[in-house]
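> call design_seq(struct)
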């Protein structure tokens, strides 16, 4: 998930685009999507090793300053 605005050059980078970095959705937008889909008690929890995960994808780009790996927990009533 995006945690900050990516630099323009990163948004245009093909490797970032196919690696799901350039198109990462903002954390709060994800929360809204879950709410609109009827979920409640939504918890977006950054993974403890998120920075290391992102850093391993592109060590030279400092992408861990812009995106993070999250665990998502939510509840939805059954029909």
């Amino acid at each position: 998930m995006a945690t900050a605005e990516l630099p323009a050059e990163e948004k245009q980078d093909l490797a970032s685009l196919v690696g799901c970095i350039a198109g990462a959705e903002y954390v709060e937008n994800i929360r809204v999507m879950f709410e609109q889909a009827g979920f409640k008690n939504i918890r977006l929890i950054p993974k403890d090793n998120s920075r290391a995960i992102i850093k391993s994808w592109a060590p030279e780009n400092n992408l861990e300053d812009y995106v993070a790996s999250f665990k998502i927990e939510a509840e939805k009533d059954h029909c």
